Amino acid sequence: MASIDKEVAAELLPFLRVYKDGSVERYLGSPIVPPSHEDPETGVSSKDITISENPTISARLYLPKLTQPNQKLPILVYFHGGAFIVESAFSSDHHRYLNDLVSQGQVVAVSVEYRLAPEHLLPIAYEDSWAAFQWVASHSMDNYADKEPWLENHGDFKRVFVGGDSAGANIAYNMTMRAGIEGLNGGVRIVGTFLTHPFFWSSKPIGSECTVEHEKSLPCRLWEHIFPGAPDGIDNPKMNPLGPRAPSLARLGCSRLLVSVSEKDELRNRGVWYYNAVKESDWEGEVELVEVEGEGHAFQILKFRCENANNLNKRLVSFLLK
């Protein structure tokens, strides 16, 4: 019989189990891997840096093989997926994916390690991500001390991009919206944002989503656990971009937006719904939708190097190079 301190307090299957002693057992997520100097397949170098000691915020930086010593490259601030509760900027899946994207796109990438729920409930992940984004933008300022050399020497702050997958795409959207409302350090502007299989939801089903006990769907149950007491619940603006208190989509702080969805993804309808809302809003930027047939959620990471994954990454690369 299990001891009292290992009794289950809550379950969010298939992701994790929380015990009454406060410990968390995660069932999904790829292993943590170290950074590498010149990845043998892509030639991309990576290193881990600390952005903040208190609170603890870190990131993995990526630099492609340079053709010139002082070469300036676009900057990509990237947020990993994992439902806000699993995965890491240091995980093998995302490390492999970023190596490939950085190599093809010829960008300096900052993959942010935000703190995860349930140990760190939302909105902490958003605040960590914003602090990291502002730290990147600060490198554009002449009077900013202790600059990270890769960003200082090779980052082009006139070509800043934001992107993410799943929950990371949700964060990327929220960072873009906040940048449009509050502004970034040094007056940095976002050229483009890409959202791959964005994690959005609401209290009312749309499209082909199940209409029976919608409030018991996995996204609703997940949100209740990771952001208890969120104003408006699942219709909080951070999860529902069209919620009752959501800011106007016209405030999006980027010039170009790319939304990608997959046919067999439970979140597919949400991505299309969001794309149409942006397209019909007063936002003055350029928005595109890419749909991949026959694939599921996060296939570009989980089925890395399959033909559809290669094609999607090429589409993202063209977005970064445009």
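^ that was protein a. below is b, sequence first then the tokens
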Amino acid sequence: MAPWAEAELSALNPLRAVWLTLAAAFLLTLLLQLVPSGLLPGCALFQDLIRYGKTKEGGPSRPAACRAFDVPKRYFSHFYIISVLWNGFLLWSLTRSLFVGAPFPNWLHHLLRILGAAQFRGDELVLSAFLVLVFLWLHSLRRLFECFYVSVFSNAMIHVVQYCFGLVYYVLVGLTVLSQVPMDGRNGMVIHCNHRIPFGDWFEYVSSPNYLAELMIYISMAVTFGFHNLTWWLVVTYVFFNQALSAFLSHKFYKSKFVSYPKHRKAFLPFLF
């Protein structure tokens, strides 16, 4: 095995531990959803934490105690506001470091070291991290635009734990990107809120092409970093299981709502799942 590969596999830093734990948690959750409902005892809180929006409305009945922690799904826009601001700051800091030679703020430098930032790699990852941060910031800006002018949220809800997780998620993703830099280197109109069966393009193959596209975005970021970057592939693994779970729940919702829903259409991966 190459020396860099041994180093990658031997070092389980805090960031890698977080992404590995999240990936494992969502894999376990997805597997539990594939088990026939009669074999496992129901848990209202568990179902409430993994469902949001239409899948929450179409899922099991929810106790009043669960509904007390609901927040509007339109609060998704807060995630992307945080991402645009935070990752914009990280991009600005990296740009100054890359092109002007300015150091990171001390608190950011120390935070990255605590999280397990790279310290013994070549400078080629600096440009890769810069490109990935640019992509992440543009992606967040696009999603923010969609929240304000494209998406129709109706009265759908999310759990407050999901809301808090979403706020932390994009902060953590930005730090994960920046941690790859060697520390010792330098209004649309709403027509209605009813669900319909979409057809055409990717919808002919999967129920939720938006979740598949999200996965492909993160894979493209991983390719930018290089195929041997274990930390970012752990991020991709988490995104895969996270999006697979959301796609699976949406697929179940559509199949239960529409008797004529296309039987050949998969939930997340064309022809497979």
